[in-house]
Amino acid sequence: MTILVETHADYRLITLNRPERLNALTVEMAEALSAALDAAEADESCRALLITGAGRAFCAGQDLTAIVGIAPAGIGHLLDHYNPLIGKLRALPMPVVCAVNGVAAGAGANLALACDIVLAGEGASFVQAFARIGLIPDCGGTWFLPRLVGMARARALAMLAEPLPAATAAEWGMIWRAVPDEGLMAEAHALAARLASGPTAALALTKQALDESAVNDLDSQLDLERELQAEASATPDHAEGLRAFLDKRPAAFTGMRS
Ligand code: T3D
């Protein structure tokens, strides 16, 4: 199986599972991932997702053995499978944590950057490997990179295709944190569990607001915040959060939309 899905109390762990190819992406794997995202969304008890890779790498990007000799039009066709996956990940109405357990290259790096909170082991690195094979960063790379690290660093990362160590990625604000390799999965599980006990609807609306801020001017964003806040304030979790504050106890969020 190209991916493994493990169900935990309130969240799911998805493991990219082609370790012999450093979890390089294939269309089959993208379709499996996409189906796993749909299944997570359809399951009301699933309130967060954790994504990682099997073996020593997170994901080496497109499986290059699968594209040798295919016509340029064929390469565009691959993105017909990958682009919807990136869009789905961004729009998923729950937090997505990525545990980058080793190298994340090409589309693999950008798959990680599409997640909401990225943790990486200190031995991991991020490589926009595309220029090495005469391609441009895809799977959202040209959108994520300048927003996360600024244009100067984005240009150098994309054009030089040099590996960026996890610690530098964290220092630059490209990811949330770099942690010791041996503690990565424990910390990632704890984070996923914590997010899964949060106000899921409000977190989903937060994702939406942050992504739309990339194209909105301030007035439009203020309008959007008013609209989304109205939705958040109508959720049972908002009422529970207020009650818990007044009662001086931790909130017991259910994640219910209404
Ligand atoms: O085409 C399109 O438009 C579709 C979308 C494309 C988006 C992309 O992702 S393009 C970028 C594709 N990815 C790459 O260019 C990265 C290629 N891999 C590497 O540069 C290196 O493998 C790594 C830096 C990721 C890791 O290096 P290292 O030294 O730790 O491992 P390795 O020895 O190079 O790789 C181990 C094995 O995995 C090896 O196989 P072998 O010799 O043991 O049988 C290697 O060939 C295989 N492997 C690594 N990456 C890929 C791969 N096999 C297929 N596709 C890969 N991407």
List keywords for this structure.
six-stranded mixed β-sheet, 258 residues, 10 helices, four-stranded mixed β-sheet, globular
Description:
By secondary structure, the protein is α/β, with parallel strands linked by helices. 47% of the residues lie in helices and 16% in strands. The strands form two sheets. A six-stranded mixed β-sheet has the order 1-2-3-5-7-10, with helices on both faces. Strands 4-6-8-9 form a four-stranded mixed β-sheet. The protein binds ligand T3D.
Quick recap:
With 258 residues, the chain is of the alpha/beta class. Helices cover 47% and strands 16% of the residues. Ligand T3D binds next to helix 2 and strand 6.
Report low-confidence residues grouped into runs of 5 or more. Answer: none
In percent, how much strand structure appears in the residues? 15-25%
Terminal CA distance reads 37 Å
Number of strands: 10
Indicate the percent of residues in helices. 40-55%
Helix and strand run: EEHEEHEEHEEHHEHEHHHH
Main β-sheet, spatial strand arrangement: 1-2-3-5-7-10
Indicate the topology.
Blueprint: E1 3-7, E2 11-16, H1 27-42, E3 48-53, E4 57-59, H2 72-91, E5 96-100, E6 103-105, H3 107-113, E7 117-121, E8 125-127, H4 141-149, H5 151-160, E9 164-165, H6 166-171, E10 177-179, H7 184-196, H8 200-212, H9 218-233, H10 236-247
Parallel strand pairs: 2-3, 3-5, 4-6, 5-7, 6-8, 7-10
Antiparallel strand pairs: 1-2, 8-9
Helix pairs in contact: 1-2, 4-5, 8-9
Ligand T3D is lined by residues 21-22, 24, 60-65, 67, 75, 78-79, 103, 105-107, 127, 129-130, 132-133, 135, 138.
